[in-house]
Write a structure and sequence with these properties.
With 167 residues, this protein is mostly helical. It has a three-stranded antiparallel beta sheet. α2 packs across α6, α3 packs across α6 and α4 crosses α5. The protein starts with a helix and ends with a helix.
Amino acid sequence: MSLYHYLAAAALDIPTPTDHHAYLTYKLDVIKILVLNAAEPLYRKACGLRVKEIRLLRLIHDYPNITSSELKVKLVLDKTLLSKYLAGLEQRGMIEKIPDKQDNRIQQLRLTAAGEQAWQTCETIGRGLEAKFFHQMSGQEWDQLHHLLDKALNSLTDWHSQATSDG
């Protein structure tokens, strides 16, 4: 189903970029839903993976020897769901757990050859989808968007840290 048909079928009233009354979180949520609904079937067909599993592969690729605790923080993901996704990736031979050299209780995560192959396939698909989905942005606008989103995330992280330390 095309993005246009999905929007028509869902009868979503997407705010235009000039609609300053819509909350940023609403716009981000709509973008997330549309992108996930369009991307998920492609990833599942190509690799048999869900987007959240692919995110795990990407982080394990980018941070070899990362622990599940570190992944939990980076993904802001429930521990139970994280364990479920990691177990599935391990059962399919995409990741392996290696005991930490200093502390055998800690398991470090790495991609296997199958995981590397799946990561590469999904990376190609993902970069292609981003180019298609956001084709109206110039390279400079794309970089600026990422910069602004990084600032927003840092601001939110600072707020959260302060809110939790205040009680």
